Amino acid sequence: MLANIPSSLYPALETPVAFEGVFGWFRSGSTRRGVVLCGTLGFEQLSAYRAWRELAAQIADAGCATLRFDFPGDGNSADVEVMRADILVGAIARAVSYLRTEACVDEIVVVGLRLGATLAALSASSCGIDRLVLLAPFTSGHAYLREMRLRSRTVDRLSTDEPIPQPPGDVLLGGFRLGPALVADLSVIDLMATTQAPAPNVLIVGPDTAQLSRHYEELGSRVASAPFAGLAQLLIGDLFSETPKDTFEAVVTYACADAKPASSVPPAVRAAGAIGGAGWTEVPARFGMGLVGTLCRPDRPVANAPTILFLGSGRNARSGRGRQIAILARRLARSGFRSLRFDLRGIGDSPDRPDGSSPLYALDTVEDVRAALNHLDGLSSAPILVVGLCSGAFLGFHAIHGDHRIKSAILFNLYCFDWNPLYDVETKIRNPYWGVSGYANEAKKVASWFALLRDPRRIAAITAKLVRLAGRSLKKFASVPFKAVYAENTVAGRIGNIRLRGAGLTLVFSPNEPGLTEVHAKLGRTPSDVERKLGRPLVMIEQADHNLTVDGTLDKFYEIILESIKCVCEKAAESNEDEIKSLRYSLGF
């Protein structure tokens, strides 16, 4: 029975589907009712992604067919030239039609989250649905835009710790950009101005439901309401998001109550998740222990070119923060280069890790990378170029060191080469001043010194903490005075071994990144020291923020990828033994 299948296998039960450029996940049910799940957009959807997947699984376990999807221009759905509100509302209508046809259901429930709830309310009356669940809806588009602008001041920061400037007419949050046309469309949305009941039965879950509940009751809907326990923690960000279990349990109960059993087994839905655009086609991929990825194929591939394997940052789903990985993958395909992006276990659509722990900075996630490499091996013998972002850069370093199939790696904003298992990842991320490198990075900022002068009491507290950190380091070194450290086990030694086999490593940073302290500590204090050990200069993208959100910085990173592709192709065309011998000598091997 489905109810007895552990949550770690949910992805294996879902079928990737696509309809009119919309990518989604379908799961069949045993009743005559289907449920469409309309998530929200951008940063908030990345934060809620894993929990949203769990909600779909719980509803399907209760017997209702489910369809969750990415809006056009978001996630893994097709790009749109200009995102407009009617495109988003139209996607919901198409999802309802698709589920009604493919699942052979008589009743439809639509569940929407945040902006997705607002858009679902707008589309519901024309879709002929039976129940509508609105989770923390915005009564007006103006309220949504106001909140996103406020959140952007804390989420999107420059290397100077100032907010990233908002482009005129745009709203930028978490790297996801709402263009002027969509902002204009959203600014005139007002659910209180609707004149038709959205559905016979409506559940509104949120902090302030009274006004909208009365309005829908006056229009003829039967309305229930409830508070949204756990909303803030759901939307806090991908790294710390938590599933609001009690709230989702109430949603499942409401959505599935009194669903009648199907009179016959619905036909199986054929997996057809291919999405296409100018110069590229994407297909879903499954490999390893249920890992889920997206293979982006060029319409006109360049012969003998490497395949790019993207390793994303944090716990963002594979499309990337601000959708930058999907954007890069499709742009590379238009230039003739294939790529694979995928979710590690515990992220996005892939299964949970066996112990339920976070995959961030865990060395055993290299096995997930090997599974992706094995999958690519089955497709072609092309060399592999890894592109790792932040925590993905850490993983990329260990992957290229341990697997000779990787011929080159670009590591963007690497935080560290090796993670001390005694350090707690969550503590480190929540407190950027947890270690000496964090304080060293802050010391470079003029604003930090002004803040310190405004509150001199902090000087004593910081000094005391630095003394404790220094004592901890001395104790660590004193405990192993005779421990042998072999050159090949050092960071420089491992990079040397990578170079000896003809592979390349490119380190790319935005300004003032804490990982720069790590690089200079391991590879040398001067740029020439670093270049000598890497075999190429350290690359800085000036004006870039941590997530390549600032206009033009993603373009610069794309050019760096193209240059690395060129180097891999040239390396494959030449096998110079004299160069290898010279390299061995210069590295002292």
Based on the model shown, name its key terms.
589 residues, 9-stranded mixed beta sheet, 8-stranded mixed beta sheet, alpha/beta, 17% strand, disordered C terminus, disordered N terminus
Low-confidence stretches: 1-11, 479-484, 585-589
Q: Helical proportion?
A: 40-55%
Number of helices: 21
Supply the helix-strand structural class. Answer: alpha/beta
Largest sheet: 9 strands, mixed
Whole-Å distance between the termini?
A: 60 Å
In what order do the strands lie side by side in the largest sheet? 11-12-13-15-14-16-17-18-19
- The total count of strands amounts to 19
Radius of gyration: 25 Å
Average pLDDT level: 89
Please characterize this protein's 3D structure.
The protein has 589 residues and is of the alpha/beta class. Helices cover 41% and strands 17% of the residues. The chain is built from 21 helices and 19 strands. Strands 11-12-13-15-14-16-17-18-19 form a nine-stranded mixed beta sheet, sandwiched between helices. Strands 1-2-4-3-5-6-9-10 form an eight-stranded mixed beta sheet, sandwiched between helices. It has a two-stranded antiparallel sheet with strand order 7-8. A hairpin with a 2-residue loop joins strand 7 and strand 8. Helix 3 crosses helix 4, helix 5 crosses helix 6 and helix 17 runs antiparallel to helix 21. The longest helix has 23 residues. It is globular and about 75 Å long. The N terminus and C terminus are likely disordered.
